[in-house]
């Protein structure tokens, strides 16, 4: 039990018992004072006054016992409520801590998932950029190959065209020579 709460309980119990005993004490004092005054005024009624006084004292003691019992009962109820509240507070602390731990774990897991997704996005971006660079290199190589092939083709065509032109010219010269002969 919390020391502060235990101290407060002891103080409250002392105050309850003290206040419960003040009332009967004042009542007994008042009754005794009036009994003494009554005996002083009427000495012949001393027996009745003493009997009455005894009866009042007994009634006061009974009332004191009832008040004391009620105070003790209220104190026990207060202690019971205090225990119940302490139990609920402890459960709240445990549940609160476990809820905080659960939230912390959820946050950590969420962070790990986000990091994993970011890592996947990074890897996908790197692969995409690598593929793009490879495709650009292929395209440039293909373009250079096409230019080379086109140059070769043009050169071949020019050579072929020259050969055919020369052959055609030789053929025409040969035909002209035959005609002139």
TrEMBL record:
Keywords: ATP synthesis, CF(0), Coiled coil, Hydrogen ion transport, Ion transport, Lipid-binding, Membrane, Signal, Transmembrane, Transmembrane helix, Transport. The keyword Phosphoprotein does not apply. It is found in: Membrane; Mitochondrion membrane. SUPFAM superfamilies: F1F0 ATP synthase subunit C (SSF81333). Gene3D superfamilies: F1F0 ATP synthase subunit C. GO terms for biological process: proton motive force-driven ATP synthesis. InterPro entries: ATP_synth_b/b'su_bac/chlpt, ATP_synth_F0_csu, ATP_synth_F0_csu_sf, ATPase_proteolipid_c-like_dom, F/V-ATP_Csub_sf. One of its GO terms (molecular function) is proton transmembrane transporter activity. Residues 1-20 form the signal peptide. Residues 68-95 form a coiled coil. GO terms for cellular component: mitochondrial membrane; proton-transporting ATP synthase complex; proton-transporting two-sector ATPase complex, proton-transporting domain. Residues 11-47 form the V-ATPase proteolipid subunit C-like domain. The keyword DNA damage does not apply. It is a multi-pass membrane protein; Single-pass membrane protein. PANTHER family: ATP SYNTHASE SUBUNIT B, CHLOROPLASTIC. F-type ATPases have 2 components, CF(1) - the catalytic core - and CF(0) - the membrane proton channel. CF(1) has five subunits: alpha(3), beta(3), gamma(1), delta(1), epsilon(1). CF(0) has three main subunits: a, b and c. Belongs to the ATPase C chain family. This protein is one of the chains of the nonenzymatic membrane component (F0) of mitochondrial ATPase. This is V-ATPase proteolipid subunit C-like domain-containing protein. It comes from Solanum bulbocastanum.
